[in-house]
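Sample pair:
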Amino acid sequence: MTDSSASLDQWLERLMHQHHAAIDLGLERVAEVARRLGLLDQPLAPRVISVAGTNGKGSTVAMIDACAQACGLSSVCYTSPHLLRYNERVRVNGLEASDAELVAAFERIERARLAEPAVSLSYFETGTLAAALIIRQQSPDIAILEVGLGGRLDAVNIFDADVAVVTTIALDHADYLGTDISVIGREKAGIMRAGGAAVLGSRTLPDSVAEYAEQLGVRVVAALGTTFDYHTSSGQFDWHGIAAKGQPLRLEQLAQPQLPLDNAASALQALVLAGIEPDQAQVSQAFEALTLAGRMQRIGRWCLDVAHNPHAAGWVARKLANGPVPQGRIALLAMLGDKDANSVVSELAPVIDGWVCATIEGDRGRSAASLAERVIAGGGQVMFEAHSVADALVWIDKNEALADWEVLVCGSFVTVAAALEWLNKRSQGVDG
């Protein structure tokens, strides 16, 4: 039985514990419930773009969405994880889905999964189906889906994509995806469809990605650095690629977004292959106005980024190195235990003058002491070890000697979420 009076928070708490594993890759169970809901009877939307990769997925989705809206199209995006509110995961024309929309979707899914024979679904699988139900209800011109983990066996992959984007391939989630880059590439390429289009959004993807596309019979494969590319000049960038029918296409003097340009170029190529050709003014309008929480997000002297692996940390370090030089810069670092902390510290070290390490609690957490060992081993100075991200923020905030220093907060979505909550309370005069 479903509880029609349950709030969104109550539903989310229930979903966290209803399945035996937090991550359970495979499509059979989620596809069965999707069939019961009628979600596989027809395409999810007139245009569907799916985005997989190790880093840059959220940025790419956000830029595709912003450009689509600038072209006057209606859109629904599905992304994960969220920072402060679950509602962030489903955005309708740029606005978060309401509690009522999400609860109504969860109630429908619960009835469908409990029909005989009952099917067990994970938190992410249920959320993916909820997003799909909202997409169907909204009937947008375009749906943009971010793959959660991997690609081939991710719940998002029950829906066919007209355009599949693979942003980057790097080592991450090794417990689920392994450590063979070629195998990881093939798994993420699994979101491609025969007869569809694919965008390869990195210059250093393993050969397995393009090989899979060829074996599958993907109609159009656009690769960064060959089929499409960009170059920058005077704070703007020029882009060239191919249109949906294969003819060359150029967009010049575009405003640069505050997000990786490889992802911006890939977003444009994906949108064009979906049959949408924005002009220079529309792209610049979209990129100038676009901000993405937790991606080089600046709030006063605080810079927040969800970077949690070496590839992402390297990008953050390059952005900081190319920006204004502060009096000093602290890194507030808190990471999960299954991430490559040594390499993240190594990537950030050239732009960091001192470190504050914080503990993340829980089964996947990592202690401040463990991080501090890695910082010290790399030659860094650990200024403080905190029991939590909030404690670290308070220590930095109250340390008058550091009042003029810039603070980079990074290491995980959990870290940035805690920092945003603390900064919000601080701005409202609430004791954090």
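The mean pLDDT is 94.
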